[in-house]
Design brief:
This is Sulfatase-like hydrolase/transferase. This protein is an alpha/beta fold and about 525 residues long. It contains 22 helices and twelve strands. Strands 5-4-6-2-7-8-3-9 form an eight-stranded mixed β-sheet, sandwiched between helices. Strands 1-10 form a two-stranded antiparallel ribbon. Strand 4 (about 285-290), helix 13 (about 300-305) and strand 5 form a beta-alpha-beta unit.
């Protein structure tokens, strides 16, 4: 192996460390990664001025191991998560580890993980060389290790969750309302609930995002659109978004309340009464359909544990895909999924006079970072460049609009409430700098008989408020017009966000143990 001359080795090490520092800076500040070059240049200039790594600074031949090695490695873990999702959600990490990571569609992130690991190893080797070569760094890095641990957002989140066990807060539990049905509709309507993966209402800003949202905006004119719905902590990934809108609570992970730490969860929120539980008790036939595997992130466990008759995903549906290889990394494309959903709704509609039904479906087209646009969208929109998330958002809206138009033409939307919502705000994608600068909010709209057309309701709320709002739109009357932490958006009473503010609720969530204990009561 060729050995670099001492001078070349010194400046190679210092330059690489500068590039790593520049990457950290641009990631934390959400600016273009091209700016890592001037950051690295400043670092190298400082290194030249102070003669870092110069042979004259070496006073010992001891092969010391930097105290900062583990803190630096943990920062690389944080950077990988930030690069993948944009905002590190510790609750999501813990829940996915406990609920199961099998059959995920993030093969690209696996490759990225390998690259990050290699870069981290090289960086640790370079830093070790600097500490061993320059005696001044031997002292500085010991102090730096403390700061690296203290300011790592990942570790800060862990310390907050640990504090909740000590503080045993009960603020959220005190505001939780067990859903209580006071009266039922004379004619029980069917329900079609469409979760649009990462398709937040923020994209409706035409000045920033063009026509990406136009089909969804057109659908909104046919019904009632709810504006201003923010994202609470522990509701920012798919299963958590479903739990928020169907159970009225954030998905605070089971944590240590899950005794079998190395086994997947067998139940998800077993002590929490969700929309599926209520509709099942009302005699509804309940179906969930999604293109990805239902084994990923506990979706099958959640749905089957809360009254659903069937939870169908890639494992159950891919044999019906034509052609057989028309699949993406996650599973079925949305045009295939919505065609299958149409067929199932036709069959369910044949029986709806005797038994009403509720169909829940999840799209995949706009899944970050780049999306998975269907072939039908390529034929409608033209070529996809493989990066532009707005193309995939537009694809989602167009497919949903076409799906509902087809159902409407066949008379399959009679006595049916249609709910369209995002599952959560988008994670990191090609529009990330524009998104983080925007006033972000989730998609939530309703269409159907009895739902005013062209109406907009602007409330400061969150996705937990969807739960009681959907029940009221279906004709059910709720005690206190509340369910879980949700408050009906049709009511005059304030939502928790209006009454206390998003930061206050999130602050209590970081300190709370009582609601977590209540929701997971009985979990193994």
């Amino acid at each position: 192996m060729m050995k670099l001359p001492p001078t070349a080795l010194r400046w190679s090490v210092l330059t690489y460390l500068g590039l790593c520092l520049g990457y950290l800076f641009t990631t934390l500040t959400v600016i273009s990664h091209w700016f890592l070059l001037p950051v690295a240049a400043v670092w190298v200039a400082i290194a030249w001025f102070f003669r870092w790594g110069h042979p004259a600074q070496r006073t010992s031949t001891r092969r010391v191991l930097p105290w900062s090695s583990i803190p630096l490695a943990l920062w690389w873990v944080y950077l990988y998560l930030d690069d993948s999702f944009g905002k590190v959600d510790l609750g999501a990490v813990i829940f996915h580890l406990q609920a199961g990571m099998t059959e995920h569609g993030g093969e690209g992130r696996v490759i990225a993980a390998v690259i990050f690991t290699l870069c981290a190893i090289v960086m640790l080797m370079a830093f070790t060389w600097l500490v061993r070569t320059d005696h001044r760094w031997r002292l500085w890095e010991r102090v730096g290790a403390i700061f690296l641990l203290a300011f790592n957002p990942l570790l800060f989140g862990l310390s907050q969750r640990g504090a909740s066990v000590v503080t045993e807060g009960d603020w959220l539990r005190d505001h939780y309302r067990v859903p209580s049905i006071e009266s039922e509709p004379q004619t029980r309507p069917n329900l079609i609930y469409l979760y649009l993966e990462s398709t937040e209402r923020t994209y409706a800003d035409r000045d920033t995002f063009g026509d990406a949202y136009e089909d969804l905006a057109a659908l909104g004119k046919r019904g009632t659109v709810f504006e201003g719905l923010k994202q609470l902590d522990n509701t920012g990934w798919t299963t958590a978004g479903m739990v928020a809108t169907q159970c009225g609570v954030p998905l605070i992970p089971a944590g240590l309340k899950h005794d079998n730490q190395f086994e997947p969860l067998e139940e998800v929120l077993p002590h929490t009464q969700c929309l599926g539980d209520i509709l099942n008790a009302q005699g509804y036939d309940l179906t969930y359909m999604g293109g990805a595997s239902t084994r990923f992130a506990g979706k099958k466990v959640f749905y089957e544990g809360h009254g659903f008759d069937r939870a169908l995903g890639r494992d159950e549906l891919e044999d019906q895909v034509t052609p057989p290889d028309y699949l993406n990394d996650w599973g079925l494309y949305d045009d295939t999924l919505l065609d299958m959903a149409t067929e199932r709704i036709r069959k369910l509609a044949e029986n709806d006079e005797r038994q009403p039904y509720a169909m829940f479906a999840l799209t995949l087209a706009a899944h970050p970072p780049f999306g998975n646009p269907a072939q039908a969208c390529l034929e409608n929109q033209g070529k996809f460049d493989g990066v532009d998330i707005l193309y995939s958002v537009k694809c989602t809206g167009w497919l949903v609009r076409r799906f509902l138009q087809r159902l409407d033409e066949e008379g399959l939307l009679d006595n049916t409430l249609v709910v369209i919502s995002s599952d959560h705000l988008s994670m990191k994608n090609s529009e990330w700098p524009q998104l983080v600068d925007a006033e972000r909010e989730n998609t939530f709209m309703m269409l159907g008989e009895g739902v005013p057309a062209g109406k907009r309701i602007r409330r400061q709320g969150s996705m937990v408020d969807v739960y009681p709002t959907v029940l009221e739109a279906m004709g059910f009357t709720l005690d206190a017009r509340a369910a879980g932490l949700g408050r009906s958006l049709f009511a005059k009473d304030p939502t928790l966000v209006e009454e206390y503010g998003l930061e206050t609720i999130n602050g209590h969530m970081a300190e709370e143990d009582a609601l977590q204990t209540y929701m997971w009561k009985g979990v193994n």
